[in-house]
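Human: If only I could read C-alpha cells as easily as an amino acid sequence. Take your time, and here it is.
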Amino acid sequence: MYSSITAAYLARYRSVLDAAPAPAELLPLTGAQRRFLITRRRDPRGRTDIVPLFFAFPRGTVDLPRLHRAAVRLAARHPALRGAFTTVRGTPLLRLGAPAVEVARAAVGRGGPDRSAAAALRRALLDWPLDGPVLRLLLASAPDDDEEVLAVALDHAACDEQSLGLVTADLTAAYGRDDASAPEGLGGRARPDSPDSPDEDGVAAYRAAVEGQLAGEAAAASETAHAHWAARLGGLEEVPREEAAAGGVARSTGVVTHRLPAATGAARGGVFPALLDAVGAAARRLAAGERVLALGYPWGGRPPGAEPVLGCFLNTLVHPVAPGPARSLDELSAEWWDDLDHADTPYDEVVRAARSAGARWSGTLDGLLTFEDLNRRPPLVLGGAAGRETHVGGRPLAAPLAVSASHGEDLLVRLAWDRDRYRDADAEAAFEALLATLRRHLGPPA
C-alpha cells in the first residue's frame, strides 16, 4: 500500500492532540500551509510569503481607527486570523488565540523615489515580522498625492487567492457597521472586540474544511498519481548551483505590464493553458541550455461541501517546459486537463514522484504563474468609496520569473523578474515572446 506524507503528518498530529492539555486550541495544517512554513524556515532572510492587495482611495477617505475596528471584527470571525503557526513535538500546526492585526500608516520618504506611497508600502511589507501579525493593513500617501494607497496583506499560510474575496467582502461589511465602542489603538497586535474564546461554530467550520482538505490530499497521494507525475516530471533538472546562488534572494525586481482584450465565448476556456504556454515561451527565452524547466501555478478551492472559511486551500502544480517546436492549444489543453485530474496530489508527493523517475530536482521552480478572475472578487468599499485596485512592484519573488494575469474587462498580464538573474533587455524580450504566444493562441488584438 502506498504510504503518503499526508497520512504520516495526520498520525503525528493525532499523537500531539492525545498529549495536549488543551487539544481544542490546536488545528492541523494543510499541505500548502506546511510548505509555506518549511520554506520560511529555509529562507536565508526568514521571509514570510505574503498575499497583498493594493487599493487607491481618494485622500481622506480611510479612517484608520474605524479601519482598525473593522479589521479586528474580520479577524475575530476567522480562525486562520486568530492563531499562531507553531510546532509542537516537531509537528507544525495552528494554535488558536487572539486576532493578530496591525493597522498603521506607512512612513513616506523625504525625497527622490522614496517619496511615494508605493515605496513606503514596499519597505513596510519587506519588514514583515516572523512572529506575526497575520493581517496587516497599511496606508500611505505622499504629501502632494490626491490619492492614498491601502495595502491589505496577509500571511500566505493563512490565506490563498480565493480567500481574498472573503477578506474584501467582510472588511467592507465590518467597516460599514462600525461601532464606536470598539477598542482603539493603532499598530501592533489588536485586542479582539469579541470573547477571548473563538466562536465555536466558526472553529468547527474551519476544522472541517482543513480536515476535508487533508483527506483529499491523502486520497490523492496514490500510486496512480505517483505514476502520472513521475511520467510528467521525470525529465526535470535542478537549477545549476551558480544560477541558484545568483537568483536565490532578489535585491531588485523589474516589472512590465500589458493589457490584452478579454477572451470571450469559447476562447475563455483556453486562457489558462494559453498562459501556461506563453510563460513557458518567456522562460525558454531566458533559460540557458536545453534543460526542462519547471513552472509552478497555484490551483485549488474549498473541499466539496466546506463552508466559505478563510484559509489556505490550494496546491502548487508543476508544468514542465521542454525545448521544441510550438504546439497547438488543443494539445496543451489536453495535457493540462490530465494534470488537473491529479491536482490534489501534495507538492512534496509530486517532488518525490519526479525524483523516483530520475529527475535531478528538489522542487525549485524556474517560474510562477498566478491567475485571477476579477469577476469573482467583490470590491473593497470604505466610506462609500470603492478602492481602485493598483499594483506595487519591487517585492521579492518566489521564483526568478513570475507572471500574474488578471481577467476582467481585459486581460492584464504582468511579468516580474529578478534583476540579479536576468538583464532588463532580456526580460523585456521574453515578455514580447509571451505576448506573441498569447496572441497566437487567443487571437490578435481587437
